[in-house]
Amino acid sequence: MTWPVTLKLDSAAYSLSVVQRVAYSLADIVAIQVGIEANQISLTAHPAEVRLTLSPEQAHSLILQQLNDFALRDHINRETAGLREVLARAALAGCGISQ
Fold it and tell me: NCBIfam families given for it (predicted)?
């Protein structure tokens, strides 16, 4: 594998928001260009520094790890949204603050 590292993602598996958060979180290591094509999101990664010691294979793995991490966080966030609202209401009611 050589630079640039290219990934084609199914937009049903990874939202654009998740992909953008990954690109931002890795900006100090790799510069990621994001493109949208039909039902795919494409990522093209280049080293952020000339003297980057990360191999293209390591960069590919790191990007996939970050994609899975942020996708899982997004899923958990959506799944627990109702619970967080109930807990916030209960906490506010316990403090005597009404909504």
Answer: chp_LLNDYxLRE
